[in-house]
Amino acid sequence: MAAESTAFTLVLPVLPLDDEVVLPGMVVPLDLSDAEVRAAVEAAQAAARSAPGKPKVLLVPRIDGTYAKTGVLGTVEQVGRLADGDPGALVRGRSRVRIGAGTTGPGAALWVEGARVGEDVPEPLPGQVAELVKEYKALATAWLKKRGAWQVVDRVQAIDDVSALADNSGYSPFLTTEQKVELLETADPVARLRLATQQLRDHLAEQDVAETIAKDVQEGVDKQQREFLLRRQLEAVRKELRELNGEQDGEESDDYRARVEAADLPEKVREAALKEVDKLERASDQSPEGSWIRTWLDTVLEMPWNERTDDSASAYDIQGARAVLDAEHAGLEDVKERITEYLAVRKRRSERGLGVIGGRRGGAVLALVGPPGVGKTSLGESVAHAMGRKFVRVALGGVRDEAEIRGHRRTYVGALPGRIVRAVKEAGSMNPVVLLDEIDKVGSDFRGDPAAALLEVLDPAQNHTFRDHYLEVELDLSDVVFLATANVLEAIPEALADRMEIVRLDGYTEDEKVVIARDHLLPRQLERAGLDGDEVTIDEGALRKLAGEYTREAGVRTLERSIARLLRKVAAQHELGRRELPFTVREADLRGLIGRPHHVPESAQDPAERRTAVPGVATGLAVTGAGGDVLFVEASLADPETGAAGLTLTGQLGDVMKESAQIALSFLRSHGAELELPVADLKDRGVHIHFPAGAVPKDGPSAGITMTTALASLLSGRLVRTDVAMTGEVSLTGRVLPIGGVKQKLLAAHRAGVTTVIIPKRNEADLDDVPAEVLDKLDVHAVTDVRQVLELALAPATNGAAPEVPVAA
Ligand SMILES: Nc1ncnc2c1ncn2[C@@H]1O[C@H](COP(=O)(O)OP(=O)(O)OP(=O)(O)O)[C@@H](O)[C@H]1O
């Protein structure tokens, strides 16, 4: 403990030290050319003349003009010249002095009273203090060794006095004046040593960090320099080689570095690209690796990393978007409405900074489902127009290899990025509309599952970091608007369908086709044929006949082709001088221009030529990938002598359809008698049911009542009415169960010229979707029991005479 004497027994001249501190035990030279220093020394010398001992001064640190409260009594050891020749004095610090009041003395110096600060260190040192002494010495030694001050190490090691050891820190160049004043004013020697130790420890730690940094920096610089030098050498070698081979200087390889550096790439992509450039520069010009890397770099450089089209004003003006849809497509009110809703929601969410709706809740992806030629692809294109975005179509039909979607690994010979990456590249922007065409036709096999890769592409939670195997760097697909098309909903892999919002396009009525042809197909084909709208027109009657008798399809693709053929003929005739323009094509001209129609309704056929002109043939309605269609079911009984027993089914039927045939047969076997059918005929006789268009695979239960009707007609010998078509599943008890695709089937019935349609009662609600103009022309019967079907469909018995077949009006 420091014991302090309060008796101010000393009277000393003050020697101010600016930004310097002298602690007891230190010997320092002072410059006498400084007036205050000189005044103090001279005053001390004057006083010493009348007292014993060396001249004494009070060394007091002064910071910004303020004196410390404690000074050090110093003795002037010697007066002479400093190393630079200026007059100087050598002063030794002796002991701490507490400064008292000012007083007077000889000379110009400031005189004060002082009291010696006593010091009290316990003997022997308690363990803690001894440890502290050890620590201080170890730290001081470490520091001194770093500076190579070996002599000083020994001196410090030799100090045993706690106070002197702490004051030794006064020499430390790394301490600030304030830190030294703190040491000076800490009277307790143990506390002071603790402080000095802490200061030393902090400094060493700081120094360590600084050194590591310095070392790292140095190493970095070395590596860069080495790399730079090596590159220069490599460049020189390459240049020599090129000259040897007579090539031009300054070709691509070095170019890639510049191109990558100049390109607007996201940081991670740039890093990856530069890494490849490094590899390229090391690879020899002819190595295959070099050419892979170049192809990869080309792909990366061609990607529109930071390109995006401005969402056109119309995307944010939903009315404008709707106008675009209306202008480009006739009809399709429901579909356009649905697309408009989709755009509106998207707009509102983006205005609120929300992402696309994702996951299994659907909504992220619109899927347009319907038969060919109903405008799915062209609607997708219209969506892009409406949003002011680029449009790219990705054909997925027949894709079985996951790598088609996600790319091949680069080590693969002839590796390519997947279709998604190629689509974005083709679009030249990161926010195009991408139409995944025929998504129902992706398959999967041993080469992986493309549908799984598509799931990732379509999932908003994942697609902002889509990773193509070839590209290897992440691609953000979150701004891409994905649309999908499919012919058959059931064929879309279920997990994918789950993520889609299904919009159905079931096909057009004849009236709609006429409008589409007049407003869209004809103008487009006129232009293709190099004709003007006022040179050739096709009147409505002709268009109707084209739609009704020259084509039989749900969409308008063949219709468009027929119009094109017609216009080519007219153009050619005109060029050959055989036809004057302007010319209006009328119904009567069609035959002369493009030949006879291919699709005459059954009802318009000669009765003897009709499919249903013999018992055992019934007209069914089905939905295929091409839309709705009529199909004729034929049944026959084998000769008991020559034919095989049992049920034979032909026409590429699926399992469900086969079972449905069994049910129809079983129903007749058990209920035939009550229907007054000669079911005994069925005994021991083989039954054959055939679905023509034998090459087209068919499945599903909806032909149940048609098969029952065909068999009943066969057994009874009653013909099936030509104007009747039917659809419905049959149960073992003869109930008629609901089926799907009512709208498509009714459109098909109407196209084929059928006038009476039988559907299951439970499908009545589906009639709401059927266009009124079609319903008006059809006599639709909703039934619950197959007996009603037979009543409606079978023509009256003819008793062996030529059957009288009702003909539709
Ligand atoms: N409602 C419509 N209004 C105007 N044009 C239409 C309409 N529907 C179809 N078209 C035209 O019919 C043609 C065929 O359509 P598109 O190719 O889009 O059919 P799709 O349904 O995509 O067929 P696929 O399934 O075979 O791809 C296109 O030229 C399209 O512009």
From TrEMBL:
<feature type="coiled-coil region">
    <location>
        <begin position="227"/>
        <end position="254"/>
    </location>
</feature>
<dbReference type="InterPro" id="IPR027417">
    <property type="entry name" value="P-loop_NTPase"/>
</dbReference>
<keyword id="KW-0346">Stress response</keyword>
<dbReference type="InterPro" id="IPR008269">
    <property type="entry name" value="Lon_proteolytic"/>
</dbReference>
<feature type="active site">
    <location>
        <position position="702"/>
    </location>
</feature>
<dbReference type="InterPro" id="IPR003593">
    <property type="entry name" value="AAA+_ATPase"/>
</dbReference>
<dbReference type="InterPro" id="IPR003111">
    <property type="entry name" value="Lon_prtase_N"/>
</dbReference>
<keyword id="KW-0963">Cytoplasm</keyword>
<dbReference type="Pfam" id="PF00004">
    <property type="entry name" value="AAA"/>
</dbReference>
<feature type="active site">
    <location>
        <position position="745"/>
    </location>
</feature>
<keyword id="KW-0547">Nucleotide-binding</keyword>
<keyword id="KW-0378">Hydrolase</keyword>
<feature type="domain" description="Lon N-terminal">
    <location>
        <begin position="12"/>
        <end position="204"/>
    </location>
</feature>
<comment type="function">
    <text>ATP-dependent serine protease that mediates the selective degradation of mutant and abnormal proteins as well as certain short-lived regulatory proteins. Required for cellular homeostasis and for survival from DNA damage and developmental changes induced by stress. Degrades polypeptides processively to yield small peptide fragments that are 5 to 10 amino acids long. Binds to DNA in a double-stranded, site-specific manner.</text>
</comment>
<dbReference type="InterPro" id="IPR027065">
    <property type="entry name" value="Lon_Prtase"/>
</dbReference>
<protein>
    <recommendedName>
        <fullName>Lon protease</fullName>
        <ecNumber>3.4.21.53</ecNumber>
    </recommendedName>
</protein>
<dbReference type="Pfam" id="PF22667">
    <property type="entry name" value="Lon_lid"/>
</dbReference>
<dbReference type="InterPro" id="IPR020568">
    <property type="entry name" value="Ribosomal_Su5_D2-typ_SF"/>
</dbReference>
<feature type="domain" description="Lon proteolytic">
    <location>
        <begin position="612"/>
        <end position="796"/>
    </location>
</feature>
<dbReference type="InterPro" id="IPR003959">
    <property type="entry name" value="ATPase_AAA_core"/>
</dbReference>
<dbReference type="InterPro" id="IPR054594">
    <property type="entry name" value="Lon_lid"/>
</dbReference>
<dbReference type="InterPro" id="IPR004815">
    <property type="entry name" value="Lon_bac/euk-typ"/>
</dbReference>
<dbReference type="Pfam" id="PF02190">
    <property type="entry name" value="LON_substr_bdg"/>
</dbReference>
<dbReference type="InterPro" id="IPR027543">
    <property type="entry name" value="Lon_bac"/>
</dbReference>
<keyword id="KW-0175">Coiled coil</keyword>
<dbReference type="InterPro" id="IPR046336">
    <property type="entry name" value="Lon_prtase_N_sf"/>
</dbReference>
<dbReference type="InterPro" id="IPR014721">
    <property type="entry name" value="Ribsml_uS5_D2-typ_fold_subgr"/>
</dbReference>
<comment type="subunit">
    <text>Homohexamer. Organized in a ring with a central cavity.</text>
</comment>
<keyword id="KW-0720">Serine protease</keyword>
<keyword id="KW-0067">ATP-binding</keyword>
<comment type="similarity">
    <text>Belongs to the peptidase S16 family.</text>
</comment>
<dbReference type="GO" id="GO:0004252">
    <property type="term" value="F:serine-type endopeptidase activity"/>
</dbReference>
<dbReference type="InterPro" id="IPR015947">
    <property type="entry name" value="PUA-like_sf"/>
</dbReference>
<dbReference type="InterPro" id="IPR008268">
    <property type="entry name" value="Peptidase_S16_AS"/>
</dbReference>
<feature type="binding site">
    <location>
        <begin position="370"/>
        <end position="377"/>
    </location>
    <ligand>
        <name>ATP</name>
    </ligand>
</feature>
<dbReference type="Pfam" id="PF05362">
    <property type="entry name" value="Lon_C"/>
</dbReference>
<keyword id="KW-0645">Protease</keyword>
